[in-house]
Amino acid sequence: KSLIKIENMSLEYGESINSTLALKNINLEINKGEFICVLGPSGCGKSSLLKCIAGYVNPSSGRVLMQDKEVEGPDWHRGVVFQSPTLYPWMTVNQNVEFGPKMRNLSKNEIENTRKYFLEEVDLSGFGENYTFELSGGMKQRVAIARVLANYPQVVLMDEPFGALDALTRENMQNLIRNIWQENNTTIFFITHDVDEALLLATRVVLMSKQPGEILKIFELDFSKQ
Ligand code: ADP
Ligand code: ADP
């Protein structure tokens, strides 16, 4: 049931007098199927925490374990979605979503089925042949989500994924990600600074405190979601 374990993790950027303690003694366990929202003021270390889980940054002390194995660098078991989607502009929507499955040498059929399924999940079935620069912000973010999901990651790490979208698009995206989470039994770790968004989506909310980033409180919200 437990998927990720963060043990006594601290993160310091830089050296000696110019250093910043971004995370201090973080302990957190993420279970399979959870939708965790991390809430906290700007600069409290939310992104740093996500980067440590993703394997982009090594903690200064402590460790991150995924299924009892220490995380060493990024890989497709931990998919990341950023606030501004980073898509391949020379590829169509189809090619973006197929990229991961192709890298993993799936059969032609599996690649096509995976791509079709997740484009349907993000409501973009009619846009496979489009280039991503032809799409709106919300659509691009949906391509980025489909591309990550097509890798069947163990966990999806999202860093304020809807922060750059207008209010209506954001609401649609929130509903969409909640459906995807429910239908696919996905595990999601989701950063936001929007309290309403956290309360709407999360099964657990992790509240972080200002510098240095520590976990202030963890709220269980399960009851409201099923
Ligand atoms: P949040 O995502 O909550 O806004 P961050 O994790 O981005 O917080 O930042 C936490 C702290 O670490 C801040 O004080 C920030 O200035 C600092 N920080 C973040 N990234 C770096 C970096 N690459 N080098 C030095 N300091 C950084
Ligand atoms: P209560 O429901 O009485 O607040 P909790 O178990 O929620 O008790 O939390 C007790 C204290 O421990 C709180 O201050 C909370 O912020 C802190 N805490 C809970 N879980 C963690 C964790 N995984 N890492 C760090 N601090 C935590």
UniProtKB/TrEMBL annotation:
Q: Which PROSITE patterns match?
A: ABC_TRANSPORTER_1, ABC_TRANSPORTER_2
Q: Which keywords appear in this protein's UniProt record, sorted alphabetically?
A: ATP-binding, Nucleotide-binding, Transport
This entry's Gene Ontology molecular function terms read: ATP binding; ATP hydrolysis activity
Domain (ABC transporter): residue spans on this chain: 4-226
Q: Origin, by domain of life?
A: Bacteria
Among SUPFAM superfamilies, the record links this protein to:
P-loop containing nucleoside triphosphate hydrolases
Q: What is this protein called?
A: ABC transporter related protein
